[in-house]
Amino acid sequence: MLGTSDKYTMNIPETLKFTEDHEWVSLDGDVATVGITDFAQSELGDIVFVDIQTVGETLAKGEKFGDIEAVKTVAEAYMPMSGEVLEQNEELDAAPELVNSDPYGQGWMIKIKCSDLSEFDKLLSAVQYKEII
Predict the structure, then answer these.
(1) N- or C-end of the chain: fewer Cβ atoms within 10 A?
(2) Which class is 20-117 in CATH?
(3) How do the domains of the chain map onto residue ranges?
(4) Strands of 23-28's sheet in order across
């Protein structure tokens, strides 16, 4: 795709941290809000279903927390940090397209009670994430 990297260097909020698997993380105390990046949603295309069955579970960093179903593919979403999945964005049940239209806002996916806050510091900065896409 021509110009893809140019478009996505502009929509990578400096206030967030990122994973190589294209999840973003916002931290408030010991609770992290997680979603997929604008780059990831654009690569997936039109998202039709978000399946998260892990609320209440404690998962390790890197473990799968859910599936994202697009028109042409299904992608797995991974824990960017270890902790308990406190809640999922229930708005996505009725409007999964929010992940496409507002990936860093209304399209968030889960909230995690983090068990190891030092993992946050090991996530990618916006500058580092731009380098991998």
Answers:
(1) N
(2) mainly beta
(3) 20-117
(4) 17-18, 23-28, 31-36, 110-114, 83-88, 58-59
